[in-house]
Amino acid sequence: MPNASKRILVGTAIALLAAAILVFPSLAPNPYILSSGVLVLNYAVLATSWNFVGGFTGYISLGHGALAGLGGYATGLLVVKAGLPSFAALAVAALLVAALAVPLGMAALRVRGASFVIVSIALVLILLLVFQSWASFTGGSRGLVVPRPFDLSRPEHHRVFYYLFAVLLAIAVLAWWLIDRSRFGLGLKSIREDEDKAEALGTPTFAYKLIVFVVSAGFTALAGGLYALWFGDLDPVFQFSILTGSYLVLMALLGGVRNLFGPVAGAILVGTALEYFKVEYGDTPLHLVATGVLLALVVLFMPDGVLPAIGDLLKRLDRTKKSSIREVTAAELAEQRKAAV
Amino acid sequence: MPINSFRAISTATAVFALALGTAGCSGDDQGSSGSSDPIVVGISLPLTGDFSEPGKGVQEGYEAWAKVVNDKGGLLGRQVELKILDDQSNADRVVADYEQLIGKDQVDLVVGPFSTRLVVPSARVAEEYDMLFVEPAGAAKEVFEQGFKNLFYAAPAVANDHYNHLAEHILALPADQRPKTAAYAAMDDPFAQGTAYGLKEKLEAGGVKTVVNEVYPPNTTDFSGIAAKVAAAKADVLVGGSQYQDGVNLIVALQQLGYQPKLAAFSTAPTNPEFAKAIGNKTTGILSPTGYSQDAPYESNKEFVEKFKAQFGKAPEEDQANGYTTGQVVAAAVTAAGCAEQGECQKKLVDWLHSNKVDTVVGPLSWDQTGKPQGAHMIQQWVDNDIKIVLPADVKEADFVYPKPAW
Amino acid sequence: MLLFQSILLGLLLGGLYALLASGLTLYFGIMRVVMIAHSAFLILAAYLAWWMHDRIGVDPLLSMVVTVPLFFAAGVGLQRLLLTRLRPATLTMMSVLLTFAIALTVEGLLGYAFTGTQRRVQLGYSSASFEIFGARIAVVKLIAFVLAVIALSGLYVLMKRTRFGWALRATIQHRDAARLLGIDTERVAGYGFGIGLATAAVGGTALSLDTTIYPSLHWHWIGPLMAIIVVGGLGSVPGAAAAAMVLGMAQSLLQIPMGTTWAQTVFYVALFATLAFRPQGFFGGRLAQRF
Asked: N or C: at which end does chain A have fewer Cβ atoms within 10 angstroms?
């Protein structure tokens, strides 16, 4: 396919997606659907934020739910205890979480894979303990009530936050795209493909991993903080839940971690499915089973994502093209490198 | 940009359109409420998760209420229909549930979920849609500090006042018998802590020294550490701010360490039908506050106990009574205001409840402006393998046993 | 007096931790797999013990006759049928996700079958105890501890004294070299996994004797266990056992000044400290450095 027409296609698709997201609130028949839309967008932002680490470096974090919870609590506490205006608190909270991500990343990323995952799970568990126990500061299990930033009726409140999440999603996607195109992004991807070789070739792997982890934590905290301002009630048990992290991984893997819009597609798919099945069939522990089985299937058979797998299948039917497991061929890589210089 | 992006974006768009379509279709399945349509009451309850045990109890209470009302011809001549969702004991879910009930299902009335943690977020949803919100379980004082105007707690007293009669009784004991020290162990839960700390405040003010004060997370399973501390302190009084299983675990751990208090009080746990068996039948002397008694002389209570036994084949407990009471309160308001739908009507219901008294299975209830009920709990005690009311003196079924025999 | 009591409780608790952590670190040694579902199987075994006691009326200890072989087979199957399908290059990461998915599935099925209600085995000797130098030891806790000690000793003898143990250790130390020596490393790895999961069956039975169980309880266990195997040095069974005793004791003693909730943080503090200052762990384990 020629480059120009490809670009037009991609552009049209992005415009369509953006339009669909933007008109959704006016089509939503009632505030409940609108609030589900807010939740799905929240998932989309979180999954995209997760993908800064997961997609670029291949390090899988199950602890991003905790970073979001931390962003939410930091925002809430800054509003309630320090009296900051809501959105100033949101910004400060994101910076604080990003700062905290530095020592965290240093402990987690110094060693490879296994320890990283262990730390990410431990993060959820330890934050749950701390936020539950430190009741005098966090409100403990009594929860923390975050004041509303605007004085609006509930449906209007949903609508405003829907657009705020859409803006945040646009920023996160844009940031991902910029990194993807940069030399920095190339270095990160080389870590994913083979960390030893990347290191041998002089890529400062540790610094790269740390930077992208911090960026990811910052975006996650923004999403968590915005959620806190929207939802209003924070409770440690729900903010620091291991399940949030696993939903994010499922969404990103399902949509495809190497794609700009993969996590968004995954979030819309999984988020909508979660709400739909809940409304139609009620809540049962089978949700866990479904999540578990789906995750296992994806990991076993389509580790690069379901959508890309379907795409590959179509492509194979379409034409007998390259069948490299790598995302780009050596020739394309060289071309990209030339373009980047 | 790799070609895959295009596919991902188009898929995202397609999925989104699909979601939109589903949303659109399922949005308009409820119409207006004509006079012959049933009155739909929306409820979200924890049927799975941490609070599933009491959640199911409350559900039975609601179901018993709906059946009793419908057998008598319904409310305002309309049948009552319950729409119950499961919130998995999860605050995010409970909010989504009420959002769905009010916004999508267009229910006529909503009533409360179980546990304080869930009451506050769900009450806010109801408040912001201007719905009356009578609830069976948010007893902690925080609930009434949120500035809710539409909320009413359908039980005699808030958590901190549960032990008022017991505190009075202990402090009135002659000086040589009065306990000197007390140990408190409470679950990290607003309700459970509320009950224990209400008593703690009063006993401390009366000169009973606090020697142990422990808080444990809701999912604690190993109580040996807490038990070791309580046993080492040899406190005269033991107060457990407990739900069911944690109370049992704590008692068993204390039995293992051979600790014998002179007085032991637990919230909720001792009234559970399986309690005696779970702690090896060594129950005599264990105290518990209760807002409900099957033998209470209130008019509607006899009917409730009878019909409940017929429907479920067992006697109602406090959770069931709380659900039933909630129904009674709503029914009284609906009957008085002559309407039950969203909109203007809800304000009439709220106003009526603020200025009137309602007769229920737990006695007459009335509320202050924050929706806090104005009463106290009775104190029950295990005597001769049965739990009986011992305080206050005017309604007692048995004499107060003190000091408590060994367990 | 309280101190002595806490030391005893810490010792009893540490024994159980040691058994469970050994299984977890064994998987890592064999395949570089962090088996998140280990504690989910632990809870499953506890549920089976409870269920058999509740329905059939057999003592929970007897349930091991069924659960231990069953879990061994499940472990072999898990390794041979699922884990070997993963790409070697991303094995560590993807195996975490896979075992995480299995944990969720087990939790969901338990919730579906037995509801979220907390369960507890009620035994005639549940609250029995005896006194030793002024402190008290509960009979059930002692049984659990003895079970753990027997299982751990069995594991030790198996690893050090048998031909299979020799092959297993060779596989852990250097897989390729072991294969050159004629060891069927695939088969050994499968059996190793089976043994790891069998320890979860024993641990679950021990657990069911004295605590309440509910489906999501496994998250409560996996955190401390992961911390233990990192502190002990990933892949080192003696390291895991030693770290388990030290941390279990620390938790028990810290409960006196800090309370139960804060005392649990000792595991995570130890985890972060280990990763920051000594990633290979404190009790051996050369493997950890690179993973």
From this structure: C
